[in-house]
Structure formats: structure tokens, C-alpha cells
Specification:
Strand content of chain B: 25-35%
Number of helices of chain A: 5
Largest interface: A-B, 32 and 32 residues
CATH topology of chain B: Ribosomal Protein S5, domain 2
Number of strands of chain B: 9
Distance between the termini of chain A: 34 Å
Largest sheet of chain A: 6 strands, mixed
CATH superfamily of chain B: GHMP Kinase, N-terminal domain
CATH class of chain B: Alpha Beta
Structural class of chain A: alpha+beta
Helix content of chain B: 25-40%
Order of helices and strands of chain A: HEEEEHEEHEEEEHEEH
Largest sheet of chain B: 5 strands, mixed
Oligomer: heterodimer
Strand order of the largest sheet of chain B: 1-2-3-5-4
Number of helices of chain B: 4
Strand content of chain A: 35-45%
Distance between the termini of chain B: 56 Å
Structural class of chain B: alpha+beta
Order of helices and strands of chain B: EEEEHEHEEHEEH
Radius of gyration of chain A: 19 Å
Number of strands of chain A: 12
């Protein structure tokens, strides 16, 4: 496969695996997959697979937000999941994935951080979301965004005993999650727009736009990536695709 | 009070429920999942590829490199900070040494085979589950091996020698305390490729522990074999 060949196929409206340009591979979400985590989910999109876990800790709040808990999102592009991911500190790719996933949740105010306060200025809950890739066959932005939301929905507070967390006892109280924004990433190769690339399609694409969409069809985060350019008309079309596709992904939650 | 009944009700020699599957990471040359109780290890084999740094290259044979990693949410209690530390470095090294004796890397001069072991959830015995999964992944990848390697965490809890300790037993604070003894065995020869101990035992105890380890290894080996057979049945 090369880029020219990919462009020719896309021009005919076909993908190598027979999908349409705006069609996802089969999407599956499985919740509660790690007994060690407070919440977890495994997302499979075609051959792409990622596991997301939520750990919760109780600590002193930051001095500028004494009544707010904290959300932290981290992505580990595990070397187990692809030859191109090597052991070592997080790469640019990994950090971008972490930050874009984080912003989608944070900016929609999906998580009510005020409700994470236990004692003002003393004790708040920190919610730490870690996504670990198991097999990287492209489309990680959307897989991780979906997995993060599913893991948060699955998370239950551990018991708090005299300000100390007892991880052996999980309560049946979920975290204060009010919304369920999901990212849809639209890729562009030549003039063609498509979603959910396989790794080969992803590596040949020129640019992409990740659009985090709420259930109310508003946009809460954007990230343009890749070396290529987008026209104003492209952006409008891409947003339209995202608004159409997000509810489909949400069904898998 | 002596430890006369296991916390989870098992017999002293009884292993937790096991599950094994190969081919769980489709993009890798070989891969395997091994679950024992609530400990899950996923191993993927990648390579051969060039050894870096280059001064570590061996022109006479290939190099086996292992990477052990706990997922940040997989620990008992607090989040495990990613990036690894001294513990995971040491475990990676002893995993290499546990697996190296059964694999022939004569055909891969200057190159390395890498095994990545990840733990999505844990309840003790992670290095052992990792080695057991890694051996299956290497076999699944089709490298020339004279046998698998089978590993189990043994222990002395109170005055009892037990197979496959879990977290609760590791944390036992009653009389006699808890001694942790991970072991890896080459099933066909009974040779030991990993042996560690943290705690306190007599020479007699140690003999019994190793005997129990050999017995446990046979059970685990059967699970490994079955998973590999199942995978090749599917492709046949």
C-alpha cells in the first residue's frame, strides 16, 4: 500500500477493508475489566484495542482551588501495542492524546469537580484516568475518548475512613459525571475526508481534526493535527460528520 | 494463632483459577494472556530488530530483552506512576534470565527479540504470571524453543507452605509472617530458571517449597499447552 493507491481508492469512496469513508469499524465497549481500578473499560474498534482505568486518591487540594477536586488524564502508548511505540518517556504523540482527551472531558464540565471536595482546603478527590493501548491499529483519539468516558461512568468511590482511602472497599456511589462528550476525529488525505483510520490510513493522512461533541450537539474541544491544511469548507464538513457520528459512538457506552 | 486455613478457602497446594489465551495482540509476532486468580498478565513479542545501543549487539547470537510494566491502575491501592522504577527494572532482568535458557537465538546475530509484559490488574504473583505469559507468547511467535517456562509464586505463610500466594497472604502478619518465593521451572527437565525469596525459611522448608513448585508447574504447563494447541487448531 502506498499513498497514491490510498488516494485513488478514497476517490472512489472505498476503503481497503470495504468500509465507506464515514464508517467506523465495529465498536465495542466492555466495562469493569480491571478489578484493581475504581473504574475501567476496554474499547475495541476493529483491531484497535485500549484499556482505560480510573484510580481515585484523596489529597490536599491546590491552594488556588481549595473547593475543587482534580481530573488527570494520561495516555500510555505501550510498546506492547505496536512496533512503532518504543519504551521510554511519553512521546509528543502520547502527550497530545492525553491532553486532547483531557480537554474533551474538562471543558464540557462533564465532571463536577466541586462535588469532589471532601473538606474545603483540606481534602479533595483526585480522579486519575490512565489509558493503556493494547493494540494500535489507528483511530486512538476516538477509542481513548470513548474508553475514558466509559471508565468514568464505571467508576465507584472507594471507602474513605478518617481521611484515608480504603481501596479494599468500593462503595456503590459513582463519580459526579453529568455529561458524556465524545471525540470524533476526521482525517484528511488529499481532498478526501474519512473517519476511523486503520494505522496505514492514519500514517498516510495529511491532517486531522478531533471534535469533542456533547449529547446536546455542542462542540467542547477541537484539535487540528498533522502537517496538512484544512479549508474553511473542510472544517464545516468535518464538524457535520462529527455531529452525525458521535451519537453512533455514544450507543456503545 | 497459626495459619491453618487459607484466607480464600483454598487447599494449601491449590492454585487459583487459571485462564490462558494466545494471539491477544494481533499486531505482535506472538502474544499471550495468562490469568491466575485476579492477576492478569499480557505479553507481546516483537522483533527481531536492531539492538540499540549498538555496543550491546552480539554478533554470535540474538539478545532477549524483557520489559515488565504494571498499568497505572493495576496496583493494590494507590496509582502506580508510569515510567517504571528500580522494581520493574529488576523484574525485567530476572524475566530475561528466566526465559533465555529455553530459546535459541542463534539465527539472530546483532538483533534482539523483545517481550513486553503488561499487567491490567494484579493480586500478587505478577512476575510469575508475566513469565508464564511471556513463554507462551514466544512459542506463539514461533521462535525455536526447547520447552516453555512455567512460573508460580510460592510462599510460607505462618507455618504453612502454600502455592500461588495472593495479596492477603503476602500481607500476613501472624506468627511466622509471610515469605514470598517466586520460582520458574523448565517443565521437561525440572531445571530452575528463577528463584527469589523474601522472608525466612529453613533448608527443609526450601526443599518442600521447590518440590511444591515443580508440582504446581505441571498444572500451569498443561494450561499453557492447551492455549497454544487451541490457537493452532484455529489457524489449521
Amino acid at each position: 500500500m502506498n499513498r497514491e493507491h490510498l488516494l485513488k481508492a478514497l476517490a472512489k469512496g472505498v476503503r481497503y477493508d470495504g468500509r465507506k469513508l464515514d464508517e467506523y469499524r465495529p465498536v465495542k465497549v466492555e466495562k469493569d475489566v480491571s478489578h484493581s481500578a475504581e473504574g475501567s473499560a476496554k474499547v475495541t474498534i476493529g483491531a484497535t484495542e485500549v484499556i482505560v482505568g480510573v484510580k481515585m486518591g484523596c489529597e490536599k487540594p491546590y491552594s488556588d482551588t481549595p473547593e475543587e477536586g482534580n481530573l488527570m488524564v494520561n495516555v500510555e502508548l505501550l510498546p506492547l501495542s505496536a512496533d512503532r511505540h518504543e519504551p521510554g518517556p511519553p512521546t509528543q504523540e502520547g502527550i497530545e492524546l492525553s491532553r486532547v482527551t483531557d480537554r474533551g472531558i474538562r471543558e464540557s464540565k462533564a465532571l463536577d469537580v466541586k462535588k469532589l471536595c471532601v473538606t474545603k482546603g483540606e481534602l479533595v478527590w483526585n480522579i486519575m484516568v490512565d489509558a493503556c493501548t493494547l493494540n494500535d491499529d489507528g483511530g486512538m483519539f476516538d477509542a481513548i475518548g470513548l474508553g475514558a468516558m466509559a471508565a468514568l461512568q464505571n467508576a465507584k468511590y472507594p471507602e474513605l475512613e478518617d481521611g484515608v482511602v480504603n481501596y479494599d472497599k468500593k462503595s456503590d456511589v459513582g463519580v459526579p459525571l453529568d455529561r458524556d462528550p465524545l471525540p470524533v476525529t476526521v482525517y484528511k488525505a488529499g481532498p478526501h475526508l474519512f473517519v476511523d483510520p486503520t494505522i496505514q490510513e492514519q500514517l498516510f493522512a495529511d491532517s486531522r481534526l478531533t471534535i469533542s461533541v456533547t449529547r446536546e450537539n455542542t462542540i467542547v474541544a477541537l484539535q487540528k493535527g498533522g502537517p496538512g491544511t484544512l479549508t474553511v469548507a473542510d472544517i464545516d464538513t468535518m464538524v457535520g460528520i462529527a455531529l452525525k457520528k458521535a451519537p453512533e459512538l455514544r450507543k456503545a457506552l | 494463632m497459626s495459619y491453618d486455613k487459607r484466607f480464600d478457602g483454598r487447599q494449601f497446594q491449590e492454585l487459583r483459577k487459571m485462564e490462558a489465551k494466545v494471539g491477544v495482540v494481533p499486531s505482535a509476532q506472538g502474544s499471550a494472556m495468562f490469568k491466575i486468580g485476579n492477576t492478569v498478565a499480557i505479553a507481546a513479542v516483537r522483533g527481531p530488530r536492531e539492538v540499540r545501543p549498538r555496543f550491546m549487539q552480539d554478533p554470535t547470537q540474538g539478545l532477549l530483552r524483557c520489559h515488565y510494566n504494571m498499568m497505572p491502575f493495576s496496583g493494590h491501592g494507590d496509582r502506580v506512576r508510569p515510567g517504571g522504577g528500580r522494581r520493574s527494572k529488576e523484574i525485567s532482568m530476572i524475566m530475561e534470565q528466566a526465559l533465555r535458557p529455553v530459546i535459541n537465538l542463534q539465527d539472530f546475530p546483532n538483533a534482539m527479540i523483545e517481550v513486553f509484559v503488561e499487567l491490567p490488574q494484579t493480586d500478587a504473583g505478577t512476575r510469575c504470571a508475566g513469565i508464564t505469559a511471556a513463554a507462551m507468547a514466544l512459542a506463539h511467535a514461533g521462535y525455536e524453543m526447547k520447552d516453555l517456562v512455567t512460573s508460580v509464586a510460592l510462599g510460607k505463610v505462618g507455618n504453612q507452605i502454600v502455592a500461588d500466594v495472593n495479596y492477603d497472604e503476602e500481607a500476613y502478619e501472624g506468627e511466622g509472617g509471610s515469605t514470598d518465593i517466586p520460582i520458574a521451572i523448565v517443565p521437561s527437565t525440572g531445571e530452575v530458571t528463577l528463584l527469589q525469596l523474601d522472608g525466612e525459611v529453613t533448608q527443609e522448608d526450601l526443599k518442600k517449597v521447590i518440590e511444591l513448585g515443580t508440582k504446581a508447574a505441571a498444572d500451569i504447563f498443561a494450561v499453557q499447552q492447551q492455549a497454544l494447541k487451541d490457537a493452532f487448531k484455529e489457524t489449521a
